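Example 3.2
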Amino acid sequence: MAFGIKADLILINGRIWRGREEGISEALAVWQGKILATGSDTDILGLRGPRTEVIDLEGRFATPGLIDNHLHLIATGMAMGWVDATPASAPTLAALMGRISDRAATTPKGGWVRARGYDQVKLDTGRHPTRDDLDRVAPDHPVLLTRACGHVSIANSRALELAGITEATAVPEGGVIGVTEGRLNGFLAENAQNLVKAAMPPATTEDLIDGIERAGRYLLSFGITSCMDAAVGQVSGFAEIQAYEMAKLSGRLPVRVWLTLLGDPG
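Structure, written as tokens:
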């Protein structure tokens, strides 16, 4: 203030939380992306210049951006582009199959259909969907339907065929391949899911950047401005680091991100 600095942004007439020790203030000034000062409306408006943006909070609460310390930004963003299989969107098996059928109808023949979010306990049938359920609604597309937890998926016949999975396939360590009366039922748990994922075309750099941007904007809608991607490499190996850099350079990284490597993708 002694040097005549004027704020770029001023918030007034609010309840602005500054932390446990600092408590609440009425107004706040920002300069070059940093907090310049906090205090009363009168004090902070003294920092207004000819180009200062002033926002009247009208008594509303404001808080510093929240930080999520463990998530998977790219995987989340990419999954947001899949069929929404959550109970809220597909409460019955028929509704779920209808959503998958609709997506298959707009996907070129042979293209993959991904879906995520179902919970068999909340479906009207009280059971996992099966290979046959998926075959009935998408016979010409490989389909992988993943449970909300991410630890279980259901594959249809086309997906199992492309992955080379048969009743004679050895079960991977740490995985489960479901069989009913000697026939694959499409159920794949934990590491067995990787057999199908390996048969999918690799994500492009643009796919990865789309996922980063989509998930980042979703976080912002909840006031989350920073996060840690806890498993970089989970989807596409070290190409994800390049995607993050390109997203940042092109203005498509909406949040601050700390990267934790999953490990050597090889």
